[in-house]
Design a protein that fits this description.
Shape: globular
Organism: Thiothrix fructosivorans
Strand content: 15-25%
GO molecular function: ATP binding; hydrolase activity; nucleic acid binding; RNA helicase activity
Structural class: alpha/beta
Family: Belongs to the DEAD box helicase family.
Keywords: ATP-binding, Helicase, Hydrolase, Nucleotide-binding, Plasmid
Radius of gyration: 26 Å
Distance between the termini: 49 Å
InterPro entries: DEAD/DEAH_box_helicase_dom, DEAD_box_RNA_helicase, Helicase_ATP-bd, Helicase_C-like, P-loop_NTPase
Low-confidence stretches: 655-664
CATH superfamily of the largest domain: P-loop containing nucleotide triphosphate hydrolases
């Protein structure tokens, strides 16, 4: 089955910008929710802002995307804007754990103090704009840093709003409810009416960008962001102007695996490589990619495509340094995708990674419509024609009904020409039904749960308690806190009765501290463990994945390094240890309760919250029964704090999930 998604454009103003790019720079409202198709140049608008002497804090979900944006921006500043390389490199900085390691190697001991100074100015010796590209955790750590540095006690969120012209949250469809507090904090303070009657603190405008947007406006409104200060910006597709994508042949093929897709399209792949263009293969599952690697190697070799022209992109291979695997393929997140002709990847490439000339894409469909559209949109950029081949089969369609619906739609339009809007409408149809048809121009791909309102309130409460929030800053935060923050505060006051009781104090205080720690944990990422392959390549692997997909943890005894960190020394490549039949491993959490020092261990599944509440209410447990009798209001407050936010004080357990016995 196939059809053609027709070439589409955006209008181009005399400035060279599209209407959306112009609005991003000039829209007066302080909070902007931005919907634009892939390739529309959302990031480029802020490059223009930098050239106009503005300062931008650009927040992205992954380290790879941060590096990709910074490398591309510096290259453009040098080649197109004729900046000196050393100037561009000082004016554009990346904030991530990778950069932290580089700074330590350079002898910078106080990383957070160094970044606070960078926040105020990257390069005091020259005029001109500046951009910091950061992952959200680095920014949050600065706002909540444990120790205040001399001379910097006053640094707070209000200073960030004052130090930048734009604060941008890119790929905001990836945001979790627990991580919305950072965006909510900036949006609320940027948009409220201040004591002197002006709109918002500082000068920064807050923008959320996505090609597959969530309906976050309702969450902002619930948090008290004035509707009059929210602009919903939408890029309009036109028939003339600047081309985003050329004609793209979209093909659904029922094939057993990705090597079969590659074999079917091998002549086309070879021709693309001969023309020095790129071909991208995208897998749904990392384990499947690893298992297919020998077959992919064999097929590429038959097409005379050298292994050193291939880059493998996924969470495991990206965790190591730049290197070549045993197959000869390159790996490592510091590799530049533009240097390679064939990219073999997982969902890692969905989040804003742009390829130089990828007109052919072979892909699995992803787990949700937004995954599909994000992948599809990486191909055939800048008006080039292209081909996207999507592997499907009965099992995939049974698991993902939207894929079956997409297949039916393509079959009904076989060999026809359709617009990108029509494709987007089909992919977003399930989400649109939730909005009762009142979506206007924007086609949403979902919304944030109500928990985002309360996690934002808890995040606000944690910030109110920070040392930097004193005197007038604290007064501002108190005055403008959302109602959910006030509700959380009332529950914490109610809970405090347990903390004042000699018998319960230790457990209650520990539980309270861990709840606040959960508020600062912006993403629900599992425990990772170090694996060293036979050639010395070091990788960080999700512990549950390692246990589920391999026999490494049963065949090899873990060791501890000088930093007391667990690692597994392999005698071959990781792929050598993959299992045909998966282990029944699942992620488990050590969970805490407010009334007892005893912990529990629960499976981190969709039923985790329900199970935690059940154990809290279990009157057969003598500790729980006594606490409910002694402090019913405090226990109910603890239950509500968890139920409203969805945050359960706990941590990943070190116990092997498949061998666990004494669990709740």
């Amino acid at each position: 089955m196939e059809l053609t998604v027709t070439r589409h454009y955006v209008a181009q103003l005399e400035s060279g910008l599209s209407p959306l790019q112009h609005a991003l720079l000039h829209e007066p409202k302080r909070v902007r929710i931005v919907d634009a198709p892939t390739g529309a140049g959302k990031t480029y608008a802020f490059q223009k802002a930098l050239l106009q002497d503005q300062r931008i804090l650009f927040i992205v979900p992954t380290r790879r995307l941060a590096q990709n944006i910074v490398a591309s921006l510096i290259d453009d500043l040098v080649v197109k804007a004729k900046w000196q390389p050393e100037v561009a490199e000082k004016k554009v900085q990346v904030w991530s754990s990778d950069q932290t390691a580089v700074l330590r190697e350079q002898g910078v001991e106080n990383i957070r103090g160094y970044r606070v100074r960078q926040m105020q100015a990257l390069d005091n010796t020259r005029s001109g704009g500046e951009m910091i590209v950061a992952v959200p955790e680095v920014l949050s750590q600065l706002l909540h840093r444990y120790r205040l540095d001399k001379g910097q006690a006053g640094f707070s969120v209000l200073d960030v709003l004052d130090d930048f012209d734009h604060i941008v949250f890119d790929e905001f469809h990836t945001i979790e409810a627990r991580g919305f507090g950072v965006a909510a904090l900036f949006a609320k303070l940027a948009s409220v009416t201040t004591e002197v009657g002006s709109t918002g603190y500082g000068c920064a405008k807050v923008s959320l960008l996505s090609a597959t947007p969530l309906d976050v406006k309702q969450t902002f409104l619930a948090l008290g962001v004035p509707e009059a200060q929210i602009a919903e910006l939408h890029e309009v597709i036109t028939d003339t102007g600047r081309a985003l994508h050329g004609d793209v042949r979209l093909v659904l093929e029922s094939l057993p695996d990705m090597p079969a897709v590659l074999e079917q399209q091998l002549a086309l792949v070879k021709e693309e490589v001969v023309q020095n263009r790129q071909v991208v293969l995208i897998y749904n599952a990392l384990a499947t990619l690893k298992r297919d690697m020998p077959a992919l190697v064999r097929l590429l070799k038959t097409a005379d495509i050298a292994a050193d022209k291939v880059l493998v992109i996924n969470s495991i291979d990206d965790s190591g340094e730049n290197s070549q695997s045993g197959y000869g393929f390159h790996t490592g997140r510091r590799q530049n995708p533009d240097d390679f002709n064939v990219l073999i990847a997982t969902a890692s490439v969905e989040m804003g990674v742009t390829f130089r000339a990828a007109n052919v894409m072979l892909m699995e469909p992803g787990f949700a419509p937004m995954n599909f559209l994000q992948r599809y949109g990486r191909a055939a950029r800048r008006g080039e024609d292209g081909t996207v081949v999507v592997r499907t089969d009965a099992a995939l369609e049974d698991r993902h009904p939207w894929l079956r619906e997409l297949g039916s739609w393509i079959s009904a339009h076989q060999h026809q020409r359709v617009s990108i809007r029509e494709l987007t409408e089909v992919l977003s149809r399930e989400a649109q039904q939730q909005f009762k048809g009142e979506t206007g121009e924007t086609l949403y791909f979902g919304s944030l749960p109500q928990q985002a309102v309360y996690t934002s309130g808890l995040y606000w409460q944690v910030l109110l308690g920070h040392k930097s929030s004193h005197r007038h800053r604290r007064e501002h935060l108190l005055q403008h806190q959302p109602s959910s923050s006030k509700h959380i505060y009332a529950l914490l006051k109610q809970f405090a009765a347990l903390e004042t009781d000699d018998y319960y104090r230790e457990a209650a205080t520990q539980w309270h501290e861990r709840l606040f720690a959960q508020a600062l944990n912006l993403r629900n990422i599992g425990l990772r463990v170090k694996v060293i392959e036979a050639d010395g390549r070091r990788l960080l692997v999700d512990r549950v994945w390692l246990e589920r997909e391999t026999d490494i943890m049963t065949r090899i005894t873990g060791q501890y390094d000088a930093k007391d960190e667990l690692y597994f020394q392999l005698q071959a490549d990781l792929e050598h240890y993959l299992l045909e039949d998966k282990n029944r491993a699942s992620r488990r959490l050590t969970v805490y309760f407010p009334h007892t020092k005893r912990t529990g261990e629960l499976e981190a599944s969709s039923g985790l919250l329900r199970e935690w509440v059940r154990h809290l209410q279990d009157k057969r447990d003598m500790d729980a029964e006594a606490a409910w009798d002694d402090y019913p209001e405090a226990m109910k407050a603890a239950e509500l704090l968890v139920s409203l936010t969805g945050l359960i004080p706990g941590n990943d357990t070190d116990l092997s999930a498949s061998t666990a016995s004494l669990v709740m």
